[in-house]
# Entry
Amino acid sequence: MPIPSLDRDVEQRLRRDDVRYTRGRRAVVQALATAAGPRSAAELHQDMGSDVPLSSLYRTLTVLEEANIISPHFGARGLTRYELAEWITGHHHHYVCIECGAVEDIDVSEEIEHKVDALVEEISGMASFNPTSHVLEIEGRCRRCR
Amino acid sequence: MPIPSLDRDVEQRLRRDDVRYTRGRRAVVQALATAAGPRSAAELHQDMGSDVPLSSLYRTLTVLEEANIISPHFGARGLTRYELAEWITGHHHHYVCIECGAVEDIDVSEEIEHKVDALVEEISGMASFNPTSHVLEIEGRCRRCR
DNA sequence: TTCCTTGCAAACGATTTGCATTGGA
DNA sequence: TCCAATGCAAATCGTTTGCAAGGAA
# Structure
């Protein structure tokens, strides 16, 4: 999923908060941009060559989350994975392996997404909720675990 | 959500695995049966009066999960919440507060659930996945946080 | 007696924090 | 220069485990 103006957009967004777009932060954004799904701190640590200390990585993730560059995903026991925020990647869903916990992105057509939205509205209406967004995850066994 | 034959059903299910349905286990099942949504070990500990040691509670949760009496829910940073398995409560969805992380059950009509299933099938088909189930969570701010 | 179950304390893995150092505007 | 960002080590939090004691069949 190539995002042409990614660095520019992120830098601009960070500048708003007076936050610097440093080498370490660029590396995380890069790693997430090329990942096939949400990644945990440990996974990013591997992806990135393991020289950055974990504590710095966690700090970077916190900063990026606060600036709304990345979003947390809680789909596995006791660990948080991150992905680029939807204003960057566009709205999407996840395929989650019930065996190993791996998570993969699913992009859906606008047409289908409209149907999802309509359903969420319908359900929320009946329960008198005020939805701001939704999460749809499809569970199954991934290639490796099948 | 009153479940008339709950204790009987659970006991029977546990006996299959040669697992005893002890006082502590009954208490957890009871607490979950009356909860409005998934509960974490710490939350259950409070719900139950706090005299059971946490380690026992965790062990109970492990046993009940292995016997498929309860199911884990990962919707919050670094903590697992549990709810009664869907063969007991019926399939349902969740309303998740984006502010405080509280989770509440949403029961939907069969009619709507059919639509959800159809959508999941449609999406999975396009991605050549083999779905065994799905999770739909509606996000918003709960009464308290609004 | 024979296992399953529980309690307590220590161990663990993911994440956070204090503090001194480094680095960029 | 000056404050944000980083590295390292220690602390914290949710959860798990070893081991000895308690209980039910």
User: Anything to note?
Assistant: The beta strands of chain B are 39-40, 70-76, 79-84, 93-97, 103-106, 131-140.
